[in-house]
Amino acid sequence: IATEQNLMQSYMNQFLERAQSMDIDLLTAFKQAGVPTSTFYRTINGTTELRYDTATKIYKAMHGQKENTND
């Protein structure tokens, strides 16, 4: 559920919070999404922002990763 606060957060900040609450590894989600690790590190360091299509891939990978840990 989107709130006014998280609508203004970057995709990466939202992913960091969600990964922590879901107890999953965000770097692994990037890899599973087929996103280069260089993109992960550039985004973490604030030198780039994620595009919508990239963020969507990561979001799907995060939820797939959580489903796999619940098996």
Folded structure, characterized:
- The protein is mainly alpha-helical and 71 residues long.
- The protein is built from 5 helices and no strands.
- α2 runs parallel beside α5 (52-69) and α3 (26-32) packs across α5.
- The longest helix has 18 residues, at 52-69.
- The model has no long low-confidence stretch (mean pLDDT 87).
Give the fraction of residues assigned to helices: 55-70%
Total helix count?
A: 5
| End-to-end CA span | 25 Å
Element-level helix/strand string: HHHHH
Shape summary: globular
Show unreliable segments.
none
Radius of gyration: 12 Å
Strand content: under 5%
The average pLDDT is: 87
Supply the helix-strand structural class.
Answer: mainly alpha
Fill in the keyword field for this structure:
single chain; 71 residues; mainly alpha; 5 helices; 0% strand
Which secondary structure elements does this structure contain, and how are they paired or packed?
Layout: H1 4-7, H2 11-22, H3 26-32, H4 37-44, H5 52-69
Helix pairs in contact: 2-5, 3-5
Brief overview, please?
The protein is mainly α and 71 residues long.
